[in-house]
Amino acid sequence: MSEKTHDIRPGQSIELLKALHILTRDGKMNQDSRRKLKQVYHLFQFIEPLLKDVQQERGAVTLADHGAGKSYLGFILYDLFFKEQKDAIGNGSHIYGIETREELVKSSEELAKRLGFAGMAFLNLSVAESITSDKLPATIDVVTALHACNTATDDAIHFALEKKAKYIVVVPCCQAEVASVLRKNKGKALADPLAEIWRHPLHTREFGSQITNVLRCLQLEAHGYQVSVTELVGWEHSMKNELIVAQYKNLPTRKPAERLTEMLERIGLQELKDRFFVPVAA
């Protein structure tokens, strides 16, 4: 165990880091814990400016974290940003952790209560259920989804669009659905030489993952968002290190909507048009 704690940000709750098992009971940190903390801090660097922008615009910030798990991200965001905004908490600033595993929801609730994090709530819901749940406000400023598996990332995007989120931050996980549809329609698709890109099973999986995120970006652009795609530093051990950040700017939507529709048709994914939906007017 290393006794160095210089990696910890000033103002960070030591009690929180111990509760999240990033620090041991005696305040030490091993290499795995240091890597995990580095990852969350790196993601925080992307999200903090978004939170500040929303706060400056309206004085309070609401954030929904989908597939929250043990809520590492939510707790770190609250500890480093939200807890300093005491007036904003009273005016409506809030973090909602959305998770399907009830035991994780309960443990997060207990930890938030112990730390006095009054602006945090945890909901035992699927991402899809959260879209219509009355336990969440009509609008959410920032939506995050860190490794929400398979279609849960798309459900998080659907949630963000329904909630008119200004910012969307997702790190997509496994994209099995698109790959399975590619496999099913491979015979017909091979009439197009482009289908050689995903003819072999390994390429089907890899291309399915790549094209899923391309379609997500086009969908966001088709709803007026400006999209950037980057790589998360410090996640080299994971193949799932792609970060998609979208900001609503009311941009022109017709071209990306057309491109999205054309791509679904070109590669045999027409049956997924409801998942990668575009605005009716687009």
Describe this structure as you would to a colleague.
44% of the residues lie in helices and 14% in strands. The protein is built from eleven helices and seven strands. α10 (201-222) packs antiparallel against α11. The longest helix is centred in the N-terminal third of the chain and has 28 residues, at 31-58. It starts with 13 loop residues before the first helix and ends in a 16-residue tail after the last helix.
Brief descriptors of the model:
11 helices; seven-stranded mixed beta sheet; globular; 282 residues; alpha/beta
Described by strand count, sense and barrel closure, the largest sheet is: 7 strands, mixed
H/E series, N to C?
A: HHEHHEHEHEHEHHHEEH
Low-confidence runs (pLDDT<50, min 5 residues)? none
Report the helical percentage. 40-55%
Give the radius of gyration. Answer: 20 Å
Helix count from the secondary structure assignment: 11
- Which structural class do you get from the secondary structure elements? alpha/beta
The coarse silhouette is globular
Question: Termini distance?
Answer: 56 Å
Mean pLDDT across all amino acids: 88
Q: How many DSSP-defined strands?
A: 7
Strands ordered across the widest β-sheet = 3-2-1-4-5-7-6
Strand content: 5-15%
What is this structure, in a nutshell?
With about 280 residues, the protein is of the alpha/beta class. It is built from eleven helices and seven strands. Helix 7 links the parallel strand 4 and strand 5.
Please outline the helices and strands.
Elements (H helix, E strand, L loop, with lengths): L13 H6 L11 H28 L3 E5 L5 H9 L5 H5 L3 E6 L2 H14 L4 E5 L2 H4 L11 E5 L5 H11 L4 E5 L4 H9 L1 H4 L11 H22 L2 E7 L10 E7 L5 H13 L16
Parallel strand pairs: 1-2, 1-4, 2-3, 4-5
Antiparallel strand pairs: 5-7, 6-7
